Amino acid sequence: MILPIVAYGDPVLRKKATDITKDYPKLNELVDNMFETMYNAYGVGLAAPQIGLPVRMFLVDTTPFAEDEDLSKEEQVALKDFKKVFINAKITKEEGEAWVFNEGCLSIPDVREDVSRKPKITIEYLDENFKPHTETYDGLIARVIQHEYDHIEGVLFTDKLSSFKKRIIKGRLANISKGKIRVDYRMRFPSEKKKR
């Protein structure tokens, strides 16, 4: 089932999410719905807060990046079919010299900005079967994971911009929170909550 994606301005996007347990209600169904929602919006990652749930879960599928001809064959192979669910994740290490990449977010449509992040991460997490993992990633996979991880920490990519850039996009962000934007996927705007 395709779920509405929560828009910028909703308080759930600012909450530090809480861990979940193995008996979280309808977990498998939630994972399926989140993947379906993400694919419907042409995303490469989606965090539970983006569908209104303040829990520490996100998922990633970097397959669309594998078609980028500017990347090396090695990078394309790594990105192809990289599809994972991260539950109760904790990034334990970020390493290397920060690099800039243009990021966007399904909760902040039509806003794309250059964001600086470290190129290599180590992350501890549980998969959808609650099996524990500790893995190290670099490049675009690390970046997508960092972006989604920020969501479960209550952080948005726009928080990482300079105050000058924040001033430039302030009006666009206000319009998103008021629902004054056209998107081709389901969204839920903060202004809609007040009407109910």
From TrEMBL:
Cofactor note as given: Binds 1 Fe(2+) ion.
UniProt cross-references to InterPro entries, sorted A to Z: Peptide_deformylase, Peptide_deformylase_sf
EC number: 3.5.1.88
Recorded catalytic activity of this chain's protein: N-terminal N-formyl-L-methionyl-[peptide] + H2O = N-terminal L-methionyl-[peptide] + formate
Gene3D superfamilies: Peptide deformylase
Annotated TM spans: none
Catalytic site positions: 148
Cofactor: Fe(2+)
Residues where Fe cation binds: 105, 147, 151
Keywords: Hydrolase, Iron, Metal-binding, Protein biosynthesis
GO biological process annotation, one example: translation
Stated role: Removes the formyl group from the N-terminal Met of newly synthesized proteins. Requires at least a dipeptide for an efficient rate of reaction. N-terminal L-methionine is a prerequisite for activity but the enzyme has broad specificity at other positions.
Family to which the UniProt record says this protein belongs: Belongs to the polypeptide deformylase family.
Name under which the protein is recorded: Peptide deformylase
Gene: def
